[in-house]
Design brief:
It contains two helices and 15 strands. The strands form three sheets. It has a seven-stranded parallel beta sheet. The longest helix is centred in the middle third of the chain and has 7 residues. The relative contact order is 0.14. The mean pLDDT is about 95.
Length: about 220
């Protein structure tokens, strides 16, 4: 594990804000269980997954940015419960809002698998014309059908297949495939939900995406790709 940040059973009272994982040799951010909450996070040019969760992570995330290197990197988000036993409890069941994922086209951008549950809101997932946008597999498909795995208010665009094995998400009227014309990872789209109505930990962000062009919170402290 050569991750930029590894959170091992970190609780929800730890303040994790304004962090960048830059060109690491593994995942950018990985959560192993716990209930850590991460806000204003940038994962740039990491060689494996940009954000990864497993082993029952039940935390929160908001304002997450992924900017993959065009020649390196696996998934923008790889989301598991537990690989060797999908039904181990507590299940991974986080809530993430306001994310922008710029995929390099080498793999699916978001894989929800191995029994993870969770809720994703207010996302923009950008491809390069190939690969898969959001894919659901194995037991996570059951949770999707039961409403225990949710993706809403999210636009997935410019992939070979934007929505793979996730018809409930594809058919949700709050989701779409419109390209908002991002400037790198900067830009948002209308049609978001106010995440403070879901959990008071969230900040107001009633748009899809992580970085509003009029309020680029990444300026001045992050390294470029």
């Amino acid at each position: 594990e050569l991750n930029g940040f590894s959170f091992n059973a970190v609780g929800n009272q730890t303040v994790l804000e304004h962090l960048q994982a830059y060109r690491g040799a593994d995942d950018g951010f990985e959560f192993f269980g716990g209930a850590a909450r991460l806000k204003w996070a940038v994962s740039t040019g990491n060689t494996d997954d940009s954000f990864d969760w497993t082993h029952g992570w039940r935390g929160r995330g908001q304002f997450w940015v992924v900017h993959q290197d065009p020649t390196a990197g696996d998934r923008c988000m790889e989301c598991d419960n537990w690989e060797i036993d999908y039904m181990v409890t507590p299940f991974s069941d986080p809530m993430v809002s306001n994310f922008t994922l710029v995929n390099n086209g080498n793999n699916d951008a978001v894989r929800l698998r191995h029994g993870t549950r969770g809720m994703l809101y207010n996302g923009l997932v950008a491809g390069t014309g190939a690969g898969d946008g959001i894919e659901v597999s194995d037991t996570s498909s059951t949770w999707m059908d039961q409403g225990l795995l949710v993706v809403k208010n999210t636009d997935v665009f410019n992939f070979g297949t934007n929505w793979k094995n996730c018809a409930p998400f594809e058919n949700d009227a709050t989701n779409g495939t419109a390209d908002p014309g991002l400037n790198g990872f900067v830009g948002t789209a209308t049609g978001g939900v106010d995440p403070t109505t879901l959990d008071p930990w969230f900040s107001t962000g009633t748009f899809k995406g992580a970085v509003d062009g009029g309020d680029d919170w990444t300026t001045g402290w992050t390294l470029p790709l």
